[in-house]
Amino acid sequence: MAQKNENTSGIGFFKDLAFWTAAAIALFVPVVGFTTYSDMNTNSLQFNFTNAAFAFNDRWGGFVKAGVMVAIVVAVRAFVLLRPKREKSDRVSPVAAALSRFSVSQTAMWLGAGLAVAFPLVMLGALGDKGSLKWIDTFGIGIMIYVMLGWGLNIVVGLAGLLDLGYVAFYAVGAYSYALMSYYWGLSFWEVLPLAGILSAFWGIMLGFPVLRLRGDYLAIVTLAFGEIIRVVLINWRAFTHGPDGITSIKPPSFFGIPFTAGPTGFAHTFGLTFSPIYTKVFLFYVILAMALATAYVTTRMRKLPVGRAWEALRENEIACRSLGINTTKTKLAAFATGAMFGGFAGAFFAAKQGFINPESFTFNESVMVLAIVVLGGSGSLLGVVIAAVFLVGGLEILRELDFLKQIFGDNFDPGLYRGLIFGLAMVIMMLWKPRGLISNRVPTAFLKERKVVSGALVQEGHG
């Protein structure tokens, strides 16, 4: 039976809530509510008390902003206090069991692939060439890139249980592999794509060797340092990588040698169509979709192989894994190399899509975003990664479109500036509500007589 927290009874609940309310008011009202400015002489933040209109950013705008933030803090704290404690149980609800089975079924894969294939066609039919350009590019292609990155990191974190905070390094290796080979040697995207995956896998092995004996926080720190080392090298090796200036004029992939240009040899002229940039975006969408589906297929197949079962055994208990005669060294290296390879593929596509890359595209924030997608969706769940990528990436982009909020908070209000706040708040609430992700239950790869859904409370999260 679920039991409520002791703080929810009597005066203790109201004392706790009053404390957090006062703390939130003291924090947000001065900083957010009052008009402030930066004093260049003292290099500090100052309040504009000398101006009669200083109060609450033109009187009411800042008051509303500060009130919203205080209300958010109080609501989250009340949620924590009122949330009933959950005991570990091997019981799985019928809804969760059905969702878990659906997530690993062939029907889910075919249904998801069909919806993805139809997405650009539906957008074109509903919004036309110009109206659908943003949705296919920003939402469709952007989300699919993070889905592929999430599935690649899911091998390391979700299946093998190795906490990797430097996954963006392999993303950068793949992107710069294609950019540099295209810039110096004129190689095409299709020629460099397998090389980008191989080079990223090689660096995955190079990272795996030094960290074989590390676990938990120590593994996270080393992988984080590896990601920063790669970024710093890209910045300082100006003679080769062009440093912070980046690399421009990167060639996009062609359609069997036919470029998407406006000339007589271009795609539109070859097929008797009117030139439009939408053809390039639709083609790029299907390219990343095919790459993501290949990632999902390989991951699903590898889970059924001995190496996939070794990954899951390593995640559950490394000592028991060793006692079964499994070579944990090769198992970890295989996980790092496989996950890095898919990150390299995604990086090469990102460079081809953007046409320009620099080290600022591969910061630690990218690793955090991909890891958040894996954890939020449920470590080890392919469907969970897709759902989390749609909500996090698509949701944060939709915040740029909420211009109607300017009628409430004023013309100077920019919804995009609050994306980080909403992102962090969503992660806090999600981890309090479902700490093991949206799809926390697991369907074992190997089973005896009958495939049963295992409760997420009985599955180890893995600590490297």
From TrEMBL:
Its membrane topology: Multi-pass membrane protein
Swiss-Prot/TrEMBL keywords: Cell membrane, Membrane, Transmembrane, Transmembrane helix
Compartments in which it is found: Cell membrane
Domain of life: Bacteria
InterPro entries per the UniProt record, alphabetical: ABC_transp_permease (IPR001851), LivM-like (IPR043428)
TM spans (from-to): 17-37, 63-82, 108-127, 139-160, 167-186, 192-211, 218-235, 255-275, 282-299, 333-356, 368-396, 416-433
NCBIfam families named among the record's database cross-references: PRK11301.1 (NF008450)
Name of this protein: Branched-chain amino acid ABC transporter permease
Organism the protein comes from: Labrys miyagiensis
